[in-house]
Every structure is written in structure tokens, then in C-alpha cells.
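Quick one:
INPUT:
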């Protein structure tokens, strides 16, 4: 890509990268690291024609890791279908978007609030049923 002077790297992270998932701390950390790696490389290689995007899917239905759990997430946190994730990848490339959150429920306001007030964000995670759901997901 560098030799050609063009290309686009798309990383699939997780919504857990934006908010450390209870009972998924290591998973959340690796996905956040992937997102920050893409951000750093995007800045480093800005003049080369190589672009970077990170996709942040919520709980993906139908296939993959989440589907194997057989649990429905709380409506308050939503989910997404694989086809929506695929469209997000194409859109990120076409529009050179650094980050795309893919989820049925708009979560960006929540993440902004959590950055401003981590205590309030944690309280909301409990009230919205995220902590209880994650606990059930791991069998506790």
C-alpha cells in the first residue's frame, strides 16, 4: 500500500472499546488498543495515501461470538446484524471515516456522557442492564 500510495485498512473492533465491558475487561482493552493503533497509524501515514478505519459493532446477531451465547441484549443497548456491519465497512472506505459505531441504539451520546462523568456512566450501565447482561453472558 505504501509503495502504491493508496489503500485502506479497516479494523473490526467492538463497542466494548468505547466503554470497558463488565466481565470483558481484557476483550475491551484489546479492542480499544486496536482502535488507538489505527488512530496513530492514520496520523503517521496521513501523507502516504494509506487510510485507516475502525468499525465498532455492538452485539452482532445471527453469527459469531455473540450469537453463540443465545442471549438477547437489553433493548437499551441494542444490537446489529452482520449486513449492517458490512455496509459500515464499505461506507468507512468510501467516505474515509476513522470510526463508525454500528448499533441499533444510538450510543454516541452515552459515551460522551461517560467521558464527562465516569460515575454517571457506570450508574447508567447498571440501570440499563448492561452489567447484569454481561454477568449472565459469562455464566455468573
Amino acid at each position: 500500500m505504501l509503495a502504491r500510495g493508496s489503500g485502506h485498512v479497516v479494523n473490526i473492533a467492538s463497542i466494548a472499546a468505547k466503554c470497558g465491558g463488565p466481565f470483558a475487561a481484557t476483550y475491551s482493552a484489546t479492542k480499544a488498543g486496536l482502535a488507538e493503533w489505527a488512530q496513530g497509524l492514520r496520523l503517521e501515514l496521513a501523507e502516504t495515501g494509506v487510510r485507516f478505519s475502525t468499525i465498532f459493532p455492538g452485539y452482532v446477531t445471527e453469527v459469531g461470538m455473540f450469537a453463540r451465547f443465545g442471549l438477547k441484549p437489553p433493548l437499551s443497548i441494542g444490537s446489529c446484524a452482520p449486513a449492517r456491519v458490512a455496509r459500515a465497512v464499505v461506507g468507512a472506505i468510501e467516505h474515509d471515516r476513522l470510526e463508525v459505531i454500528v448499533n441499533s441504539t444510538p450510543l454516541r451520546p452515552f459515551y460522551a456522557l461517560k467521558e464527562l462523568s465516569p460515575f454517571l456512566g457506570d450508574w447508567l450501565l447498571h440501570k440499563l442492564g448492561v452489567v447484569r447482561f454481561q454477568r449472565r453472558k459469562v455464566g455468573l
